Structures are given as structure tokens and as C-alpha cells.
């Protein structure tokens, strides 16, 4: 997997530090981890400081996690988003999925 993720637990909230990239080769694995975390916590904060790239497959993973958290009235948040990744989120309309902190 070309992505390293470190989980920090804070009660019902979790922070996931993302390091690497998400593309077609690893999106399913990344999504599996994200969905597992979303199933165990009410709110998820993604620290994207070291996230270098997100493909459309990665965007789909973000959308599924958002839907899972929203289903249980939780939130999906992001911080330290790289300018290029923010542009992708803006162009695709995915900024509405995240609360930016």
C-alpha cells in the first residue's frame, strides 16, 4: 500500500494522519481502513498534511466514509490540505463533504 495511516483516538472522535497517495492501486485498501474507523467513531478528522495525491477512486472512498458518518450524525473533517488536493476537492464539489479545521 502506498499510503501510511496513523490513527489517534480521542473518545468518540478519531484523527487519521495520511501519508502518501491514494490511487486505483490502493484505494480499496484505504477505503476499507476509512470505513472501519468510521464504523467505530462518531467523528473523523483526516490530517492530509502528507497526502500527496488523490485519484477519483480516492474521492469515492471519501464519499462512502462521509455517507457512513452522516448516517449516524457524525462529521468528516480535514486539516492541512495541500493546495493541489484542495483544488481537486473544489472542482469536484467534494469540499461540501468536509468540515475544514
Descriptive report:
The protein is an alpha/beta fold. The chain has one domain (3-100): Transcription Regulator spoIIAA, CATH 3.30.750.24. The protein is 40% helix and 36% strand. The protein contains three helices and five strands, in the order E-E-H-E-H-E-H-E. The protein has a five-stranded mixed beta sheet with strand order 1-2-3-4-5. The N and C termini lie far apart (27 Å).
Summarize the structure.
By secondary structure, this protein is of the alpha/beta class.
Total E-strand runs: 5
- Biggest sheet, spatial arrangement of strands: 1-2-3-4-5
What is the helical fraction, as a range of percent? 25-40%
The residue ranges in which pLDDT falls below 50 over 5 or more consecutive positions are none
- Count, helices: 3
The name of the CATH architecture is 2-Layer Sandwich
List the main descriptive attributes of the protein structure presented here.
36% strand, 5-stranded mixed sheet, globular, 5 strands, 101 residues, Transcription Regulator spoIIAA, 40% helix, alpha/beta
Amino acid at each position: 500500500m502506498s499510503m501510511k495511516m496513523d490513527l489517534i483516538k480521542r473518545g468518540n472522535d478519531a484523527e487519521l494522519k495520511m501519508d502518501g497517495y491514494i490511487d486505483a492501486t490502493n484505494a480499496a485498501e484505504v477505503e476499507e481502513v476509512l470505513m472501519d474507523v468510521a464504523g467505530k467513531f462518531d467523528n473523523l478528522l483526516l490530517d492530509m498534511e502528507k497526502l500527496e495525491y488523490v485519484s477519483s477512486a480516492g474521492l469515492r472512498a471519501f464519499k462512502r466514509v462521509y455517507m457512513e458518518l452522516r448516517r449516524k450524525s457524525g462529521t468528516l473533517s480535514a486539516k492541512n490540505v495541500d493546495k493541489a488536493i484542495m483544488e481537486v476537492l473544489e472542482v469536484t464539489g467534494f469540499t461540501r463533504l468536509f468540515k475544514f479545521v
